[in-house]
Amino acid sequence: MNKLVIGGREFSSRLFVGTGKFSSNELMEKAIEASESEMITVAMKRINMTHEATDDMLTHIDRNRVQFLPNTSGVRNAEEAVLAAQFSRECFGTDFIKLEIHPDPKYLLPDPVETLKATEQLAKMGFVVLPYIQADPVLCKRLEEAGAATVMPLGAPIGTNKGLRTRDFLQIIIEESNVPVIVDAGIGAPSQAAEAMELGADAVLVNTAIAVAGNPVEMAIAFKEAVKAGRRAYEAGLGAQYHFAQASSPLTSFLD
After folding, report:
1. Contact at 8 Å (CB) between 170 and 201?
2. Among 87, 106, 125, 132, which has the minimal tally of Cβ within 10 Å of its Cβ?
3. Annotated catalytic residue 98
4. CB neighbourhood size of 233 (10 A)
5. Which residues are within 8 A (CB) of 22 and not within 5 positions of it... i.e. 6 or more apart?
6. 185 in a labelled binding site
7. Domain-by-domain residue ranges, the chain?
């Protein structure tokens, strides 16, 4: 299968993993290892920004093997997001930033206006910007034009595990995008991750569905295999759908 390239870095795995909601950092580490993910995102608000070397969570992430992706979850506007990204680059030595601006604490839906504004500024500052957004095809094109390295439309609201509720819009985004499309948020089962990949998504980001599973390590493996299968099916070319039966064997001449 073809490799994914973001910000000049190649990724063999198309499963990106979040670090929230795990019952322990040790379990998180085991699940990340089992997933074989090469992109791990961490909310900056959960890290002691002044003691990176001794921060307990960071000791469980092998940054030599994976791309560390700090995210700005918790900021309320573009100004705060830019400031957080600058802190992140200084502390962690990476230009990769997952841009999250969702001021509403109930639904955690991303603010499209502030996200576009922040993307424009951060791209000019040399950041590799991965913006989390609603599944809005028009906004995705605007973000692409603004210099976003990817677009990350949601499948459903964060943590709901409802799957691809925005499927029709995701299809449009995938068809029209010239940057990688990563389906982020709402994926609750490996089958849903496979569905996203079959649509042509370049990757998926999964957190809650793995972290809260009865066995997070086994669930991480299940997602890994589902993402591979979905991508393989997309690259192989799925058969067309019909409204009437299509015989798999000839129906004539077998009595001749």
Report:
1. yes
2. 106
3. yes
4. 14
5. 28, 31, 211, 216
6. yes
7. 4-236
The CATH superfamily holding the domain 4-236 is Aldolase class I (3.20.20.70)
Strand 9-11 and strand 4-6: the pairing is: antiparallel
Q: Which two tokens stand for residue 252?
A: 């004539």
CB 137 within 8 A of CB 172: yes
Closest CA to 82 of 41, 116, 51, 133: 116
Beta-carbon contacts of 54 under 8 Å, excluding residues fewer than 6 positions away, are 48
- Ligand-binding site membership of 207 (annotated): yes
For 145-200, write each residue's pLDDT tens digit.
Answer: 999 999 999 999 888 889 999 999 999 999 999 999 999 989 999 999 999 999 99
Catalytic hit among 30, 98, 162, 224: 98
Joined tokens for residue 45: 């608000």
Q: Name the one residue in this structure whose structure tokens are 């090469």.
A: 38
Q: Is 208 annotated as contributing to ligand binding?
A: yes
pLDDT tens digits, 210-253 = 999 999 999 999 999 999 999 999 999 987 777 777 777 666 65
According to DSSP H, which parts of 8-148 are helical? 25-35, 78-92, 112-124, 137-146
Query: What tokens does 155 get?
Result: 């499948």
